[in-house]
Amino acid sequence: MAPGITTVLDVRTPAARRQLAKTTVDLFRNLLLLLFIVRYSRVALTYLYGYGPIASAKMGYAALRKSLYRIFLSLPGVRGKVQAEIKQTLEELEKKLVPSGPGITRYTALPASGWGPEQVRAELEKLHEMKHTRWEDGRVSGAVYHGGKELQDLQMEAFGRFGVANPIHPDVFPGVRKMEAEVVAMVLGMFNAPADAAGVSTSGGSESIIMAVLSAREKARIERRVTKPEIILPETAHTAFRKAAAYFKITVHYVPCPGPTYKASLSHVSRLINSNTILLVGSAPNFPHGIIDDIPGLSRLALRRNIPLHVDCCLGSFLVPFLERAGYDTEPFDFRVKGVTSISCDTHKYGFAPKGNSTLLYRSAALRKYQYFISPDWSGGVYASPGIAGSRPGALIAGCWASMMSVGEAGYITSCHQIVGAAKKMAEGLRSRDTLRNDLRILGKPLVSVVAFTSDTLDIYNIADAMSGKGWHLNALQSPAAIHVAVTLPIVPVVDELLNDLEACVEEEREKQRQAVVEGKPKAKKGDAAALYGVAGALPDKTIVEDLAAGFLDCLYKA
Ligand SMILES: Cc1ncc(COP(=O)(O)O)c(C=O)c1O
Description:
Strand content: 5-15%
Helix content: 40-55%
Distance between the termini: 91 Å
Structural class: alpha/beta
Pathway: Sphingolipid metabolism; Lipid metabolism; sphingolipid metabolism
Oligomer: single chain
Family: Belongs to the group II decarboxylase family. Sphingosine-1-phosphate lyase subfamily.
Order of helices and strands: HHHHHEHEHEHEHEEEHEEHHEEHEEHHH
CATH architecture of the domain at 175-407: 3-Layer(aba) Sandwich
Largest sheet: 7 strands, mixed
Shape: globular
Radius of gyration: 28 Å
Bound molecules: pyridoxal-5'-phosphate
Subcellular location: Endoplasmic reticulum membrane
GO molecular function, one term: pyridoxal phosphate binding
Cofactor: pyridoxal 5'-phosphate
C-alpha cells in the first residue's frame, strides 16, 4: 500500500463484514457494560452516601444473611418441619378466632326465606355479646375512639337519615356533599391552612396516606419527570406508607429514629435526598412511640431541596391541634410550618367520628388535583372521582359531620385535656412508682396520648402477655422491643387500675426470672406475644412471619 493512502474497509469481502459485525457487537457490549456500571454505581453511591459506609455494610450483610437463611429454609428437611409448625400455630389461632362447636351456627348460605326483624335483632345481639376484650371497660389500647353514649346515639340518627346516601351523586344527595365539604373546611381551619389550601375526605388514615403518596408521585412524574420514585421514611412512620410504596412501586429509604428522642434523624434524611425523591415524611405523633418528629427541621430540608413534606397527624388528629389550648406542651406540626405540603388527620380517631372517616389536607388545590382520577372517554360516561373509592357511604360523612358539630371546639379541648392528662398520669406512674421505675423505661418524651415503654431488665413481651392475662390489650412493638398504651376516653378512668396491674405483672415477671435463674433455666415460659415477637426478632428473613400473618388474614374469612 502506498504511504499516505488510507485503507477503506471493503465491506464487500466476507472477512471485512465479519470484522465489522464483531466491532459492532464489541461496541454494543461495552456500551451495555458502561450503562450497567453507571447505573449500579449510582445506586451504590446513593446507599453509601445516604446510609454511610458502616450502615451500608451492615445492610449488605443483613441481605446476605437473609438470602442464606431463605436457602436454608427451603432445604427439604427444614421446609417440611417449618410448614408443619406454621400449620399447627395457625390451627391454634383459628380455634381462638373462629368459634365452633355446639351452640354455634355458621351461616354460609342465604336463608331460604328472609328472617323476621326480631330474629335478625336477636342474632345481632348474640354477635354483639360474643366474648371479647372489654374495650367498654377501658381495657383496650387505642382501637376504640369512643366519644360517649350520647354522641353515639346522635351518630345512629345521622346514619338513619343518610343510610342510602352516596356522595358520588351530589345532585341526588346535596346534603352529603355539603357536609363533606364542611368537614374538610373545618379540619383545614384546625391545621391553620392557607387560603388556597384544599382537602378530601377518605375512609381512614391508611387511605389518606396512600393518596398523599400518590399525589406526590404524580407531581414528581409530571413536573420533574421522575420515573423511579423514592420516598424517605422514618422507621417509625406508619406502615401505610410502606403499603403505598408497595402498591405504587416506589423505593423506600428508611431513616433511623434513635433514642433518646426517638425522632427521625435529620442528617440521615438529608443524605438520602436525591433527584428521585418525591416525598419526605414526618409524624405528629407516630404510632409506635407517640413521638412528634422534628417537623420544622424536615421542613427546612424539604424547602431547600424543593420536595413535598407530608405530616401524618392521623393519630394526633383532634388532640395535637388542641394541645396548646388544653394547657400542654406542643411542637410545630401544621401548615404554619412553611415546608409542610400535606397533612393526614383522622376524624375517626380523636375526632370521635364513626369508623371509616379521615381527611387529607393539601397546602394547595393544585396538589390535591394530582390525586384525582378522571376518565373522560369511558363508555359508561365521563367519570371523575377524588380518590380510590367509587361509591362511598354518605351515612359515615353524616356521622362525622354530626360528631364534629356536636363536640365543637370546647368539647375537643376538654377531651384533649382528659386524654393527654391521663397519658401524662400514666407516664408519671411509670416514672415514680418504685416497682415500675426500676424495670421499665419510657421511650422518648411523649407529648400526646401514646406512652411507650421498654425494659432493660425483663422480657417486655412476657409483661404484655401477663397484662393480656389480666384482660388488657396493649400494643406490642418491635425494634426496639416495647409495648405502648394509646389512651382513649374509655381508658381515662382506669389509668390507676392499669398501673396497679402493670406493677403486679412486673413483680410476677421479676419473680419468674429469679426462679428460672435459681432453677438453672435461663428462659421463663413464653406467652403469645413473647413467642411471636421473640421469634420474629431473631429471624434474619421474615418469610415465616409473613406466612403466619397471611394465615391470620385467611382466618378472618373463615365463616
Ligand atoms: C400515626 C398513624 N398513621 C396512620 C394510621 C392508619 O390509620 P387507619 O388505621 O385509620 O388506616 C394510624 C393508625 O393507628 C396511625 O397511628
